[in-house]
Amino acid sequence: MDQGLIELIRELAEPIGGVAMKRMFGGVGLFRDGRMFGIVVADVLYFKVDAESAHLFEAEALEPFGYTAKTGERVVMSYRRAPERVFDDPDEFLIWARHGIGAAMRSAEKPTRKPAKPRAKAGSVRKAEPPDL
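The line above is the sequence of TfoX/Sxy family protein; the predicted structure tokens follow.
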């Protein structure tokens, strides 16, 4: 991994505040408020996308991050390549990083599935008693 690239991203992300970088999956994840909004893999920076922001990345033909699973299946994740100009223009970096942060925060807002209620075992249903009158 190009440490110069990682240091450049760290420097560009500094104005955002609260950005942490952690090694993971053979790359480096970019986190804010505990949510991953970007990832650097094979010296390529990707930002998180969702339904609200994907069109911005698609308009620039920025490819999604994906990998081949052990099963041979292609897995595409909700991250898209950052435009190359983000490395030359700190304002552009902030714009695109904020799209990634927004997508990461919105994904945190999604309701989680409620756990299923435990089911009674067969034969364990009790008959209701009539009320006392």
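Note on the example: The mean pLDDT is 88. Helices lie at 3-13, 54-59, 90-109.
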